Amino acid sequence: MSIVSSRSAARRGARSGARRIGWLAWLSLLALSAVLLPAGAPGAQGLHPQPAPASSVAADTAHCVDGRTLDLRQILPPPPAAGSPQERAELDELLRIQDSRTSQQIERARRDAKVDVLGFAGALGRPSGLTAASLPLTLALFQHLGTDEFAVLDTAKRDFARPRPFTVDTRLHPIIARPRSPSYPSGHATWAYTTALVLADMVPERRRPLLARAGEYAYDRTVAGVHYPSDVAAGRLAGITLAGRLFSCRPFRSEEAAARVELRKALGLPSRPSSTRQPEGVSEAP
């Protein structure tokens, strides 16, 4: 290859990488804005969708939000097009992660394939001692959260219909069972950030480690080889948006209040936090 050809290839690669970085940075900026902007602030509409009319919010907390009342197509950009330089850059990144992932990362990614709120026990400061039997109200709350998350994500995934990365580049070898659902946005990332933000509302003293743990859950989907980085970035934004909508739903807030007392007691904390938490940004995946 000539020097001129090599320089041209390098410039194309740099432009491709810049486009991908810019796309992910845009999503991260929206995610940060969704945390920092109050729901009624200028520019906040669409990041924190307005609460549904009271008549449409059912008493069952599992129906606070669905694909009709929270349409992620109005929040998320479409994923990079099939065959685009952005897609190729993401596939190359996944191949790099695959080649460099450690045994510890593989073990955690396999463990994090299971969606379980008790996977946040370490971030709550109790890596052992929290059990399902001791937290019935808390587990019920997050079961309802999961129902809403599935209703919202199922609609979005079908509409975006992005193939999984391992079906596009057969050099990718997932280390967990191959999901059959579409790839965009990441459901695990959505669940992780929604769960972390709700837990942080209940236990604000542990906000930073909870959000860091959500970042691990999300990143592990790329380590596992089942999601593009942009799927995970979109899932982060979807999770933040979903949490904001749940916080505006009275039945959810009522159930959360009861679960908060139960969880804080299990953690050995006073029923109410001693200080008011301040808004913080959402942590990036490692």
Fold and architecture overview:
- With 286 residues, the chain is mostly helical.
- The protein has one domain: Phosphatidic acid phosphatase type 2/haloperoxidase (Vanadium-containing Chloroperoxidase, domain 1, Up-down Bundle), CATH 1.20.144.10.
- It is built from 9 helices and no strands.
- It has helices at 3-36, 85-100, 103-111, 136-160, 165-168, 187-202, 207-223, 229-247, 250-266.
- The longest helix has 34 residues, at 3-36.
- The radius of gyration is 20 Å and the shape is globular.
- It starts with a helix and ends in a 20-residue tail after the last helix.
Compact overview of the structure:
This protein is mainly α and 286 residues long.
The general outline is globular
CATH architecture: Up-down Bundle
Tally the structural domains.
1
CATH superfamily: Phosphatidic acid phosphatase type 2/haloperoxidase
Number of strands: 0
Task: Write out key terms for the chains shown.
single chain; 286 residues; mainly alpha; Vanadium-containing Chloroperoxidase, domain 1; 9 helices; 0% strand; disordered N terminus; disordered C terminus
Write the layout of secondary structure elements.
Elements: H1 3-36, H2 85-100, H3 103-111, H4 136-160, H5 165-168, H6 187-202, H7 207-223, H8 229-247, H9 250-266
